[in-house]
Amino acid sequence: MLLDNHLVVVAVISVLPFVELRGAIPYGLCVGANPVGVFMVAAIMNILLVPILVVSLESAYRWVLGTRLANLCEFYVNRTRRAANPYVDRYGFLGLLIFVAIPLPGTGAYTGSLAAFLMGLDRRRSTLAISLGVLLAGTMVFIITYLGIGFLSYFLHLTPCKAFNTQLSPG
Predict the structure, then answer these.
(1) What whole-number distance in Å separates Cα of residue 102 and Cα of residue 114?
(2) Is the dihedral of CA 4, 108, 59, 125 positive or negative?
(3) Of 38, 71, 102, 116, which sits most exposed with the smallest number of CB within 10 A?
(4) Residues 63-92: tens digit of each pLDDT
């Protein structure tokens, strides 16, 4: 099969707000998709979002403020401002990169792009910082997930995922 269905799901999960590649990589590894393919698809799809987000956020922000979602939007904007400010104010480009690279929900491409917009950062430099942060986060999530699944499978003889459902149990 030319295209693995699991990689299509990885691609879709990678572009979902709040989840992004932090959820796509564990999913892909757990369903047994090719690990290199999982990383590549998740990273590429998440990075493809960045220039779109960086360019379109100003218009989207103005539009949302005129809708019933304004209060929710303001809550998210204020939360993003508080979370990203210490990193970006102090370290600029590197701070934005580090903020996005933290492999926790709410620090990915969407939030990084919003932080760059709110702080009036240069679009090109922001796109580069966010993209590099996505790659670092993806690498950390991949390593942590892969080693975690391997540990559970080998040492505890648990098979939490299809990818590691092999004959490792004693017998």
Answers:
(1) 16
(2) negative
(3) 71
(4) 988 898 888 888 888 888 888 888 787 888
> Would you say residue 169 lies in a domain?
no
pTM given for the model: 0.82
Q: Which long-range contacts (CB under 8 A, 24 or more apart) does 53-62 make?
A: 53/109, 53/110, 53/113, 53/114, 54/113, 54/116, 54/117, 54/123, 54/126, 54/127, 54/130, 55/123, 57/113, 57/114, 57/117, 58/117, 61/117
- Cα–Cα dist 123/63, whole Å: 20
Q: Which range of residues forms the domain containing residue 36?
A: 5-164
Look at the chain and report how many structural domains it folds into: 1
Are 126 and 92 in contact by the 8 Å Cβ rule? The answer is no
CA atoms of 132 and 2, how far apart (whole Å) = 29
DSSP-derived secondary structure letter, 157: -
